[in-house]
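Feature request, filed as a ticket because there's no other form

It would be nice if the structure record came with a short human-readable summary line next to the tokens. Right now we just get the raw output. Example of a typical job, pasted below so the devs can see what we mean:
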Amino acid sequence: MKICFISHDSGLQGAEMALLELAVNLRQHKGHDVHIILPSRQGGLKERLDQAGINSTVIPYKWWMGSDKQVPARAFARTLYNGVASARLAWMLRKQHFDIIYSNSITVNVGALAAFFLSIPHVWHIHEFAMFAKEDFFLKFDLNENFSYRIMGRLSDAFVVVSEALWKKYKDVLPKEKLYRIYQSISVRTNNGNAKIDIPAGERPNCAVVGKIQRGKHQEDAVLAVAALARRGIFIKLWLIGNGDSCYIQYLKQLIVEHDIAKQVKFTGFVDNPFNTIKQMDFCIICSSEAFGRVAVEAMLCGKPVIGAKAGATEELIHEGFNGLLYEFENAEDLADKIMLLVNEPELSQQIGNNAEVWAHENFSVSRYIDEIDDLLRSVQQAFNNRSRSNYQ
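Raw output as currently delivered:
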């Protein structure tokens, strides 16, 4: 099968890493011919695709949704821009005879439009809550919300959502019969990427929050929890791993100064391969309401306990006291209590980490994920072919 993937971004965040792993494994394990369309050469994904031997092409296009209050003129301009980009994409793909176009994010619609122009199946892989308030950065469609969902339903043959939390959100706005919940696979990489961070010998405990530093990720919960623990006479080292919004980073630094915890909170900047760093930690913290929770699974695969916010998909990944702990979303004092539990009971922490590693390997394997995606793609293609033959007759 020949599959054209559409990436919403050219960076190396969670959705892009998921796309890279999916493309590589579909080619290696199922023999599919894969090609990826990128909106830009910047960000690192193009280089990683080249290294993996995955063909890719850059065609500029824009999101059809944003995180701020939309300016009508700008939204209209993006709509026109994407219409032209979709036609250009369809023109480029028409001689290559792709079987399916596969959009890797709800934030871009050029793949769905190109599939319509070419009369081939389209699959939408949704990694975001979108439109559901603070659960995912207040993303809003440029067009009317209900109209946008109707377009999605008409232009797509299947929707893959990455968690049960997402399935519950989208089942009322997208055709339920086209909606499939498939957990992605995650592979641990320890032999490449940035060098390990420098942790002085004997300096314990260490914990990390991994991911883009921005308001929607709620890293302030972890910073305030460190401050609360310091007031109780418990001192831990918190590593904030990732780059992000400069205004929010400045806000976090102000909190750090206000609470006099500068020696306990460190910013590492972007780390290409977080696994080498996670392995040095005693535990990891997930402060945000996640649509999937890739970082939580990455930490589990490293045998580390995870303390996660009781929100979004994190609740379905963490089984309290077995493979992690949950704290009340946006409640730093409750997070501090859960950190204390792991610090004061190292045997419990070790057992949770061991359970987490086994559970993550069992539930997020490459073979299971690729089998499920491959079955879906073949089913979509078969159903589309049957409809086409029926219409022809």
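Something like this underneath would help us a lot:
The longest strand covers residues 33-38.
The CA atoms of residues 141 and 147 lie 10 Å apart.
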